[in-house]
Amino acid sequence: MDYTIEDLEVWNSRIVEIVHKFGLDPYPQEFEICDHEDMLTYMVYSGMPSHYPHWSYGKSFEKLKTLYEYGVSGLPYEMVINSNPSIAYLMRDNSLALQVLTIAHVYGHNDFFKNNFTFGATRAQYTIETFKSHANRVRHYVEDPSIGLERIERILDAAHALSLQCRRNLSIRKLSAEEQIETKVQEAQPPTDPFGAIHRRQDYISPDLNKVPLYPEEDLLIFIRDHNPHLADWEKDLLTIVHEQSQYFIPQIETKIMNEGWASFWHKRILETLELPQNLHLEFLVRHAQVLRPSPGGLNPYHVGMKIWENIEKRWDHPSAEDEKQYGRRNKSGAEKLFEVREVERDASFIRRYLTEELVRELNLFEYRTRGNEQVVSRVADDLNWRQIKETLIQNVGTSTIPVIKIEDADYNKNRTLFLRHHHDGRDLQLEYAEKTLQYLNQLWGHEVALETILDNRKSLLCYSDNRLAIKNGI
Amino acid sequence: MTVTRDPQSGIVRIAETIFRPYNSSSGQRSDRSAGDRLRHRQKVREAIRNNIADIIAEESIIGKDNNRIIKVPIRGVKEYRFVYGDNAPGVGQGGDQEPQPGQVVGQGEKGKQPGQPGDQPGVDYYETDVRLDELIELMFEDLELPDLERKRLRQIEVEKQFRQKGYRRKGVRVRLDKKRTARSRLKRKKASQRRDLTGARSRFPFHKDDLRYHHSVSDLRRESNAVVLCIMDTSGSMDTMKKYLARSFFFILYQFISTRYQNVEIVFIAHHTEAQEVSEEDFFHKGESGGTFISSGYNKALEIINERFHPALWNVYVFHCSDGDNFESDNPAALKAATELARSSNLFGYGEIKPLGAGYYGSSLIPLFSQLDEPNFQTLQIHRKEDIWTSFKTFLAKDRGREDAA
Question: Which of the listed residues A125, B32, B132, B341 has the most CB atoms within 10 Å of its CB?
Answer without folding.
Answer: B341
